[in-house]
Amino acid sequence: MTASDTEPPTEIDGPLLRTAFVLVLGTFMATLDATIVNVGIDTLAREFGASVTEIQWVTTAYLLAVTLAVPSSGWIVDRFGGRRTWIGAVVLFLAGSLLCALAWSTASLIVFRVIQGLGGGLLPPVGQALVARAAGPKRIGRVISIVGVIPLLSPVFGPVIGGSILAVADWTWLFWVNLPIGLVAALLAWKFVAPNPPAAAGTTFDVLGAALLPPGLAVLVLGLTELGNGRPLTSAPVLVGLVGVVMLALYAVHALRTRGVPLIDLRLFTRPPFGAAAAALIVLGASVYGAMFLLPLYFQIGRGLTPFAAGLLLAPQGVGAALGSVVTNRTVDRVAPRTLVLTGIGLIALGTVLFTQLGSVPPEPLIVASMLVRGLGLGMIGAPVMSLVYSSMPHAQLPRAASALNLLNTLGGSVGTAVLAVILQSRLAARAPLGEPGIALAFADTFWWTLGFCLVAVIGAARLPRRAPAAGQRS
Predict the structure, then answer these.
(1) DSSP class of 49
(2) How confident is the model over 184-213, as a mean pLDDT?
(3) pTM value?
């Protein structure tokens, strides 16, 4: 056998691209569904005669289910194999979508959204682990930069697609639309994604970890969500969030002491560059999802736009993300990851500055330019961070690493959104005496906090390697 027979491939070929795009299709479907449904919340409230507080659980239930599913994804892949797990997650997501479209009440819709969220929560980490395995250490950076932009587009184009659907069809099509996409993704995965046998069929499931970590995260997210919805600090739903903090602390003690394989191995965070990359992704999640919570609200409440028009103003961020991915694809193997990530954070901050000046009612061309710059920055962060982590991990640890990274990104988005919701509510109350101009000023006050998230992200990104690692290098 020659050396060329044993060396991993370095060129991105057709089979790898097919595999990557099939897997990212599932991630796109799951993340797109969340933003599409958000646009239809008011419609759902009217359809079922529910209050805003009641119908908000349609969104919260999905988020909690995702939080429950992500930590277990690494063990499930190890136990049942990657391709089988991914296709199973698609089927579960489609079953939930079908049931949601057939829902007859608010309660039934909430229950079916949980089923949908359990499948949707598995798709991103399992898909990323499969892409990393198929690409190998020498190709992972360029592949992630190509396909990693697609999940960034879903929260941008979701409002446009959701608004378009509701303009021509009833609310059930917010869920029916998933069926053809999911069926095609499952069939293509069966044909083009290589089967991955279970890596550790005999691994014992971390029962105690599963009893502490996923429920603890879900309860914490629930408390933060209720706080963001205006519940007082002393209310029972918010205080329940403290129980989540205690459960997470107990999980940390368990994970560090157990002799087996914990659900999420906290020791990964002590292994460079995982800890620094994790910090960057937490704040990236807070920045992306937090801003995507604030921006549609400002466009609709502060500027009086329709959901469809608000979605159009968000679209330049998706264009910028695509451009950022092109830049990253051409430089990820030559430029230090820290340089790319710090540049991306700087662009996000630059694109956010305009929104701290909303009291002056900036013109739409400036908003479009700022959204484009924000998107450019977003497209330059995720791929370098993930490729750096995945290229330094042994194949056997990829599912666990993908599970941990996606969990942190989800948690960062949840916490960031809840924090910004609380801040926005307090600033709206403080600015209320100013009347309509006070609304814009309240949003401007809140956007200063998104700039603060960027500063925190710099702390983590500054610890990334100064030099690009040699392809295939393993620590």
Answers:
(1) T
(2) 79
(3) 0.76
Q: Which of 69-78, 243-252, 400-409 has the highest mean pLDDT?
A: 243-252
Task: Report the range out of 29-33, 63-67, 190-194, 382-386 with the highest average pLDDT.
Answer: 190-194
Residue 65 pLDDT: 84
Structure tokens that stand for 60 in this block: 């919260």
Encode pLDDT of 307-358 as tens digits: 677 778 878 887 888 788 778 877 877 788 788 888 998 999 999 999 999 8
Number of H helices, E strands in the chain: 21, 0
CB 221, CB 65: distance < 8 Å: no
Give the separation between CA 43 and CA 319, rounded to whole angstroms: 29
Q: Does the bond joining 273 to the residue before it have cis omega, within 30 degrees of 0? A: yes
Mean pLDDT of 77-85: 84
Question: Which of 171, 173, 226 shows the shortest CA–CA distance to 53?
Answer: 226
Neighbour tally for 170: CB within 10 Å: 13
Task: In whole angstroms, give the CA distance from residue 196 to residue 309.
Answer: 44
Q: Is 299 exposed, middle or buried (0-12, 13-18, 19+ CB in 10 A)?
A: buried
* CB atoms near residue 334 (< 10 Å): 8
Report the range of poorest mean pLDDT among 79-93, 105-119, 307-321: 307-321
Residue with tokens 């829902």: 103
- Find, among 159, 232, 199, the residue nearest to 241 by Cα: 232
- Whether residue 188 contacts residue 30, with contact meaning beta carbons closer than 8 Å, is answered with no
Token pair of 27 as six digits: 């991630």
**CA-wise closest residue to 178 among 85, 115, 105, 110:** 115
Cβ atoms < 10 Å from Cβ of 262:
24
Integer CA distances (angstroms), 315 to 158, 171, 321, in order: 10, 23, 10
Q: Are the CB atoms for 352 and 370 separated by under 8 Å? A: yes
d(CA 126, CA 359): 44
Q: Is it the case that residue 1 has pLDDT exceeding 50?
A: no
Average pLDDT, the chain: 80
Contacts of residue 291, Cβ cutoff 8 Å, sequence gap at least 6:
352, 374, 447, 450
| Residue 120 near residue 62 (C-beta atoms within 8 A) | yes
Which tokens in the block code for residue 331?
Answer: 């430089």
How many Å apart are CA 316 and CA 207, to the nearest integer? 45
Structure tokens at 390: 């995945």
Q: Residue 58, Cβ neighbours under 10 Å: how many?
A: 23
Question: String of b and e for 94-106 (b: at least 16 CB within 10 Å)?
Answer: bbbbbbbbebeeb
Greatest C-alpha distance within the chain: 79
- DSSP class of residue 232 equals -
* pLDDT of res. 148: 66
334: which 2 tokens?
């030559």
